[in-house]
Design goal:
This protein has 402 residues and is α+β, with helices and mostly antiparallel strands. The protein folds into two domains: 167 residues, Helix Hairpins (Orthogonal Bundle); 133 residues, Distorted Sandwich (Glucose Permease (Domain IIA)), CATH 2.70.70. 60% of the residues lie in helices and 14% in strands. Strands 1, 2, 4, 5, 6, 7, 9 and 10 form an eight-stranded antiparallel sheet that branches. Strands 3-8 form a two-stranded antiparallel ribbon. The longest helix has 117 residues. The radius of gyration is 54 Å and the shape is rod-shaped.
């Protein structure tokens, strides 16, 4: 939001109450360049330590995330292995049932074989008894019967009958033998199937044992991952605590530098300077505003512009600081005097590409070139960082620019 000169004057009237807060600065002793340099150096050293702590915190957070990810991965692997162990245990149980069933089938088949053998033995015994009885018929057995035949028909009939009996007995014996052989093959097949099932069970048992060993190893790894995670979390917590404490030191030193800059306005500023509130542009042109006042604690407004672009004083005044700062890079501060309500104004121009074009104590007019756009200090590209203080308090400069 931008205001007309009239509204700016009304706003300056409201800000007059801040004079009581900043009046204490009028009692500060004169600030030497050596004092200012020392504070800037101390602030730069603290900021460097803070940067180191920030990196340590970043590393600790990364270690914590990695440890947590490793633990999660190991737990997922353990869960997968447990599922596999349970699956194999179920398959082993099924194989045990199949093996038991095969054993029952083999037992049944052995009973059938025993019965078939008993039947074969009985048939064989009956056959031998019949053959013996035939041998004992009359005087000479079957030979005598054949010789007693009175005609060819009797002879042929009797011989045919003997042949049929013998063939029948042979067929029965062959049938019994075939059935016995088939039963033996069925038993052998069952025993082979049982052996295959037992081999499959043994293989699955080996897999289960290997998985159990892997699960035990993973449990040890998970325990180590827990320890690593706890250690990483402790390191992260320590780094956060160190960051908080260092931020306090940096903020305190930054406040000290602010006090020095405010004191410089008192020291080098001329109380008779009157601020017209008719502020001009800091740049003839710029690409865009890359960062606004107050965003994430931002102290000023950033104008992205090509390197080397002239930077203008937005109002007449006196240069109260022209130096190098670890964050601002090369910068210039200009005190613009007070308005009709007694409110004081100053502006600060940062990230210049080199030594400022003005020096401390130099009087400047609105539009005087203070330096040129650059990217020195803590900067990610060419831009002008512009701050404004009213009664020593940071405010949004865009509220005062036409």
């Amino acid at each position: 939001m931008q205001f007309s000169p009239r509204k700016k004057r009304l706003l300056s009237g409201l800000l007059a109450v801040c004079l009581t807060v900043t009046a204490a600065f009028s009692y500060l002793p004169p600030v030497s360049a050596a004092d200012s340099n020392q504070v800037r150096q101390e602030l730069a050293a603290l900021q460097q330590k803070l940067n180191t702590i920030n990196q340590q915190l970043k590393d600790a957070q990364s270690n914590t995330a990695n440890a947590a990810a490793i633990k999660k991965q190991l737990e997922q692997q353990k869960a997968t292995i447990l599922d596999q162990i349970n699956l194999i245990a179920g398959q082993i149980g099924e194989l045990d049932n199949e093996i038991h069933n095969k054993e029952d089938e083999i037992t049944v088949k052995e009973g059938e074989l025993a019965a078939k053998q008993e039947e074969f033995d009985q048939r064989w015994s009956d056959f031998k008894e019949r053959m013996g009885a035939m041998q004992m018929l009359n005087d000479g057995g079957s030979i005598a019967l054949l010789s007693s035949a009175t005609n060819l028909y009797q002879l042929l009939t009797f011989a045919q009958t003997l042949e049929q009996i013998t063939a029948k007995d042979q067929a029965i014996c062959q049938q019994l033998e075939d059935e016995h052989t088939a039963l033996e093959q069925q038993k052998a097949d069952l025993e082979q199937a049982k052996a295959d099932l037992e081999a499959a069970r043994a293989s699955m048992q080996e897999q289960q044992d290997a998985l159990q060993q892997k699960k035990n190893e993973l449990q040890g790894s998970i325990q180590q991952a827990n320890e690593d995670l706890t250690e990483a979390q402790a390191a992260e917590a320590a780094a956060k605590e160190a960051q908080i404490e260092m931020n306090k030191l940096v903020d305190a030193k930054a406040a000290e530098l602010d006090a020095i800059l405010n004191a410089a306005n008192k020291q080098y500023g001329n109380a008779s300077i009157t601020c017209s509130l008719n502020f001009g542009p800091p740049l003839a042109t710029y690409k865009y505003v890359s960062c606004y006042f107050g965003g994430n604690g931002h102290r000023g407004t950033d104008y992205a512009a090509p390197g080397g672009t002239d930077i203008y004083s937005i109002e007449a005044g006196v240069v109260t600081a022209a130096a190098y700062h670890y964050s601002w890079g090369y910068y210039v501060q200009v005190y613009h005097g007070t308005d009709s309500n007694g409110n004081s104004y100053s502006t600060l121009y940062a990230h210049m590409n080199g030594t400022p074009a003005v020096s401390v104590g130099q009087q400047v007019s609105r539009g005087t070139v203070l330096g040129h756009v650059g990217s020195t200090g803590y900067s990610t590209g060419n831009h002008l960082h512009l701050e404004m203080k009213v009664n020593g308090v940071l405010t949004n400069v865009m509220n005062y620019l036409s």
